[in-house]
TrEMBL record:
The gene is carA. Pfam families: CPSase_sm_chain (PF00988), GATase (PF00117). Keywords: Amino-acid biosynthesis, Arginine biosynthesis, ATP-binding, Glutamine amidotransferase, Ligase, Nucleotide-binding, Pyrimidine biosynthesis. It comes from Salegentibacter agarivorans. Its EC number is 6.3.5.5. Pathway: Pyrimidine metabolism; UMP biosynthesis via de novo pathway; (S)-dihydroorotate from bicarbonate: step 1/3; Amino-acid biosynthesis; L-arginine biosynthesis; carbamoyl phosphate from bicarbonate: step 1/1. L-glutamine binds at S52, G230, G232, L259, Q262, N300, G302, F303. Small subunit of the glutamine-dependent carbamoyl phosphate synthetase (CPSase). CPSase catalyzes the formation of carbamoyl phosphate from the ammonia moiety of glutamine, carbonate, and phosphate donated by ATP, constituting the first step of 2 biosynthetic pathways, one leading to arginine and/or urea and the other to pyrimidine nucleotides. The small subunit (glutamine amidotransferase) binds and cleaves glutamine to supply the large subunit with the substrate ammonia. InterPro entries: Anth_synth/Amidotransfase (IPR050472), CarbamoylP_synth_ssu (IPR006274), CarbamoylP_synth_ssu_N (IPR002474), CarbP_synth_ssu_N_sf (IPR036480), Class_I_gatase-like (IPR029062), CPSase_GATase1 (IPR035686), GATASE (IPR017926). This is Carbamoyl phosphate synthase small chain. Residues 7-138 form the Carbamoyl-phosphate synthase small subunit N-terminal domain. One of its GO terms (biological process) is glutamine metabolic process. PANTHER family: CARBAMOYL-PHOSPHATE SYNTHASE SMALL CHAIN (PTHR43418:SF7), MULTIFUNCTIONAL TRYPTOPHAN BIOSYNTHESIS PROTEIN-RELATED (PTHR43418). Belongs to the CarA family. The active site is at C258 (nucleophile), H344, E346.
Length: 370
């Protein structure tokens, strides 16, 4: 067996609680961030590379991580974006012929520190009961006071602007330039599978930096606008919120996913709030209030749109409800061509129940273009 002498590691939570584990590989390491957990049984590479997780320490509840390696084309961005990984059993070997790397090589390429052999059930139960909080993972196990000091310096997720850390610096294009439709996407942390979904629907996408202006985006003359998923608190994203107000005012077709959904709510004067411990997994039930049908969805969010304020808003209606806790799952503007969801219709590897939302957006675009 590899790495019989792996270093001891700890997770120190903001409230002083400590959980124990071992460093993956034979390295020393340290990482900080908000500790959160994802209950997906598969899709670890997509989770680790999702820019929405920037600044978060990821606890995976699936007991085995790494056993099918990684494959470059399955990444949601250029590298791992979580700040660190906490898992139960880490597989140093993998058994998928198509894989191009082991998970360990993949994490090393992203310079990402991981710890395993953690009682993740106990840790997840603790977060569920006590809420999301900052944490530090480290092999410096005899220096608790020093680690506490470092942890105290980590900013609170509430109020934190992170989109600028993951957004593209320059605009770029995705898909076939001869496609029938053109969509301008604001990158506040966009996942590649959103771009792939547009490409599959005959769309050429131009992706703009998080602080792009309406003038910059509209100059390209797109058929529709898209606001992406992304990390951090939506409230400080002034530039994206103002841009959204203008797109809504001009009544261009507009679709938002997750952080993009939250930005649309704020642009309509509806508050967002930090949830107790958020939703992160690939089996979250949602009810579509228009059709009455249920969907199993992929979710990853720590903030949510205020339900009472949405219900009281004359311009906006709730279209989807997250059934686990009755929070807002999706909204649409009553008299504007604008809608959004808190969850992930682009989910990869799935579930794909919600992919009809991309078709709905295309229908809206086609109606305007016709
Ligand atoms: N996936 C996302 O876009 C997440 C949105 C936001 N950062 C949240 O945690 O709620």
């Amino acid at each position: 067996m590899k790495y019989q002498t792996r270093k001891k590691a700890i997770i120190l939570l903001e409230d002083g609680t400590i959980f124990h584990g071992k460093a993956v590989g034979d390295k020393d390491g340290k990482a900080v961030g908000e500790v959160c957990f994802n209950t997906g049984m598969t899709g670890y590479q997509e989770i680790f590379t999702d820019p929405s997780y920037y600044g978060q320490l990821m606890v995976t509840t699936n007991a085995h991580i790494g056993n099918y390696g990684t494959l470059a084309e399955e990444s949601e961005s250029d590298k791992a974006k979580i700040s660190g990984l906490i898992c139960k059993n880490f597989s140093y070997t993998h058994s998928r012929p198509a894989a191009d790397k082991s998970l360990q090589e993949f994490l090393d390429d992203s310079n990402l520190f991981a710890i395993s052999d953690v009682d993740t059930r106990a840790l997840v139960t603790y977060i569920r009961e006590n809420g999301a909080m900052n944490a530090i993972i480290s092999t410096d196990v005899d220096n608790i006071e020093g680690l506490k000091k470092e942890l105290a310096e980590v900013p609170d997720m509430n109020g934190l602007e992170l989109a600028s850390k993951v957004s593209t610096k320059e605009p770029y294009y995705f898909g076939n330039e001869n496609a029938t439709y053109k969509i301008a996407a604001l990158d506040v942390g966009i996942k590649k599978n959103i771009l792939r979904n547009f490409d599959q629907r005959d769309v050429y996408v131009k992706v703009f930096p998080y602080n792009a202006t309406y003038e910059e985006m509209s100059e390209w003359n797109p058929d529709g606008y898209f606001l992406s998923n992304g990390p951090g608190d939506p409230a400080p994203l002034d530039s994206a919120i103002n841009l959204t107000k203008t797109i809504i005012e001009k009544d261009h077709p507009l679709f938002g996913i997750c952080l993009g959904h939250q930005i649309i709510a704020i642009a309509n004067g509806i508050k967002t709030y930090k949830m107790h411990h958020g939703h992160r997994g690939i089996n979250h039930p949602v009810k579509n209030l228009k059709t009455g049908k249920g969907e199993i969805t992929s979710q990853n969010h720590g903030f949510s749109v205020d339900k009472a304020e949405t219900e009281a808003n004359n311009e906006v209606e709730i279209t989807h409800i997250c059934l686990n806790d009755d929070t807002v799952g999706g909204i649409a503007m009553k008299n504007k061509n604008c809608f959004s969801v808190q969850y992930h219709p682009e989910a990869s590897p799935g579930p794909h129940d919600a992919s009809y939302l991309f078709d709905e957006f295309m229908d809206r675009i086609k109606r305007v273009k016709a």
